[in-house]
Amino acid sequence: MITIFAQRNGVTEQAAKFDRAWLNPASGVYVWVDLAAPSIPEGLILSDTFNFHRLSVEDALSARQYPKVEAYDGYLYVILHGIESRVADHGFATHDVDFFIGPNYLVTVHDGDSRSIIDLREHATRNPKILGEGPVALFHRIVDAMVDHYRPELDKLEDRLDALEEKIFETGEPRLVRQILDEKRQVASLRRIVTPQRDVLARLARRDFVDVSTELSFRFRDVYDHLVRISDDALMFQDRITGMLDAHLSNVSFRLNEVMKVLTLVTVLFMPPTLVAGIWGMNVPLPRLPGGDAAQFWWVLGAMIAMTGGMFMFFRGRRWI
Q1: At what angle are helices 214-280 and 135-148 packed, to 10 degrees?
Q2: Which of these, 24, 85, 72, 105, lies nearest to 209 by C-alpha position?
Q3: pLDDT the model gives residue 99
Q4: How crowded is residue 169: how many other Cβ atoms within 10 Å of its Cβ?
Q5: Residue 302 CB contacts under 8 Å (≥ 6 apart), including other chains
Q6: Is 299 exposed, middle or buried (0-12, 13-18, 19+ CB in 10 A)?
Q7: Residue range 290-310: average pLDDT?
Q8: Whole-model pTM?
Q9: Do 96 and 79 contact (CB within 8 A), yes or no?
Q10: Which residues make beta-bridge pairs with 101?
Q11: DSSP characters for 76-87?
């Protein structure tokens, strides 16, 4: 779906089609073209109307690209990632948003699930300031909202890690290792996105590109600071999950050792009675203990109980049990 907004003389209107005359900066029109999950015919506007470079068009229409910023002749091409909740598995996922920033236009390409773009798109015609400050300022508005959406997801991740830690030390169930590895995979994926995205915003904050004014560089610097904190939190979460995995494996190993200790104790305690029963059960003449035939059973049973009790007291004295 293609949505086109054009602002002229302080009034923002949604246009049914794109006028090529708007590409001329002297037209006095600011244009925002949003492509949400574009089809192949809709994607042709990038190459046929705007004449963007073939490589940038391929990246914009591909399924997934990592964050980057590239300067082309007449425009700036930026890829950044937003974040969204996944209710099914109580996690999150990132999705890339492509930006083409020209002198008086902004083109955004995404999969249709970008909350930041959807919110601004709904208010574009009612708030003239959204397009009134120019395409770079609009780009900043979108990026700022995208980065702000990371914090609630990180808070949810921290809550899940807190609950997982309690389960590790309370139950120590072996199946928890799958949940730990799932969270570790999510944090690793987050770091692969946040780290290059932080570098992209650092270049915008340093004014590595002439399209970014001094005032807007200050705004990008604020977004960069937020993203640095998110990157630091992701690193902290990764270290925390690694420690949780080590603690879980140690806990499982300790519980297994306790079980083996009990089983070994039971086996050792029953070895002497088994030996005595085996000897006195042989069909050969054996030394007779005092008393008649009936007394022999009680002598053997008493010896078994005495040996078992003696070994038990010995183990208790050594604090093995």
Answers
A1: 20
A2: 72
A3: 92
A4: 11
A5: none
A6: middle
A7: 77
A8: 0.75
A9: yes
A10: 76, 106
A11: EEEEEEEEEEET
d(CA 174, CA 253): 10
pLDDT at 258 over 80: no
Two tokens, residue 83 = 């974040």
The answer to whether 86 touches 93, Cβ cutoff 8 Å, is: yes
Torsion of CA 64, 66, 68, 74, to 10 degrees: -10
> How far, in Å, CA of 260 to CA of 254, rounded?
10
199-256 pLDDT, tens digit each: 888 888 888 777 777 888 888 898 899 989 988 888 898 888 888 888 887 877 777 7
Q: What tokens were used for 81?
A: 């990632």
Burial environment of residue 83 by CB neighbours within 10 A (0 to 12, 13 to 18, 19 or more): buried
pLDDT at 14: 80
The 10 Å Cβ neighbour count of residue 8 is 14
Other CB atoms within a 10 A radius of the CB of residue 286 amount to 11
- What is the percentage of the chain residues whose pLDDT exceeds 70? 93
Which pair of tokens denotes residue 113?
């699930």
> What amino acid is encoded at 211 in this protein?
D
Which tokens belong to 49?
Answer: 């109307």
Residue 75 structure tokens: 């425009």
Alpha carbon distance 163, 179 (integer Å): 11
Domains of the chain by residue range: 2-252, 267-317
CATH fold, domain 2-252, is Beta Polymerase; domain 2 (3.30.460)
Angstrom distances, CA of residue 195 to CA of 63, 66, 105, 269: 20, 10, 28, 60
Beta bridge partners of 35: 2, 109
Q: Quick check: 42 and 12 in contact, CB under 8 A?
A: no
| pLDDT band (50, 70, 90) for residue 18 | confident
Structure tokens at 317: 């004295």
Closest CA to 32 of 144, 110, 124, 119: 124
What kind of fold does domain 267-317 have according to CATH? Answer: Methane Monooxygenase Hydroxylase; Chain G, domain 1 (1.20.58)
